[in-house]
Amino acid sequence: MTTIAERQAALVERFGKIEDWEERYSEIIRLGRSLPEFPEDQRTERNKVKGCQSQVWMHAALEDGRVEFLADSDAAIVRGLIAILLELYSGEPPQSILAAPPSFIDELGLGSHLSQNRANGLSAMLKQMKLYATAFQALAQRK
Amino acid sequence: MKPEHLDVEAVRAQFPILQREVNGRPLIFLDSAATSLKPQAVVDTIAKFYAEEYATVRRGVYSLSQEATARYEGVRAQAARFLGAEDPDEIVFVRGVTEAMNLVAYSYGRSVLGPGDEVLITEMEHHANIVPWQIVCKETKATIKVVSFDDSGQLDLDEIRRKITERTKIVSVVHVSNALGTVNPVAEITRMARAKGAVAIVDGAQSTPHIPLDVQSLGADFFACSGHKMFGPTGVGLLYGRKELLASMPPWMGGGEMIDKVTFEETTFDDPPHRFEAGTPPIAQVIGLGAAMTWIEELGRPSIAAHEHALLAYATRAIQALPGVRIVGTAPMKAGILAFTLDGIHPFDIGTLLDEQGIAIRVGHHCAQPVMRHYGVPATARASFGPYNNEGDIDGFIEGLRKVQRMMA
Question: Is the preceding peptide bond at B273 cis, omega within 30 degrees of 0?
Answer without folding.
Answer: yes
